[in-house]
Write a structure and sequence with these properties.
Layout: H1 2-5, E1 18-23, E2 28-30, E3 33-44, E4 47-57, E5 65-73, H2 78-81, E6 89-97, E7 100-107, E8 111-118, H3 119-125
Antiparallel strand pairs: 1-3, 2-3, 3-4, 4-5, 6-7, 7-8
Length: 127
């Protein structure tokens, strides 16, 4: 019952006609706030396309969204576009190792991929 009383809507992406949205990995602590990676699905000409982005949450109160709707990844490679379900990138986990984030994701429901990005590159995009 306690969880039911303390829930709130945190993020609703503003990228086209959003069909679904979900978290991709636990938030990652940075000096500037909690980095929240999430994915969403948009309708493009009647077909679902998955995208992944980031939000920055306040460090002391992670229910406050400082920035959101930063697009980081969308299907570009053939293995992301062609497979059991096309145009799917479904991030499921992330690791911060030194100054880089390794993002692990399902691609086209056929293979597992990993994308690497500098943490500072992401944080600079929020400025």
């Amino acid at each position: 019952d306690r969880w039911l009383l303390n829930r709130l809507e945190l993020i609703e992406p503003r990228f086209g006609k959003v069909l679904k949205v979900g978290i991709s990995a636990p938030p990652i602590e940075t000096p500037f706030g909690w980095l929240l990676l999430y994915h969403w699905v948009v309708d493009i000409k009647g077909a679902a396309h998955y995208k992944m982005g980031a939000a920055l949450l306040e460090l002391e109160n992670p229910t406050l969204v400082l920035h959101k709707d930063l697009l980081l990844l969308e299907p570009e490679m053939d293995y992301e576009k062609i497979g059991l379900i096309p145009n799917v990138i479904f991030p499921c986990g992330a690791v911060l190792l030194k100054d880089e984030i390794f993002l692990y994701y399902g691609a086209a429901d056929k293979v597992i991929g990993v994308a690497k990005m500098k943490l500072q590159f992401i944080l600079d995009k929020f400025k």
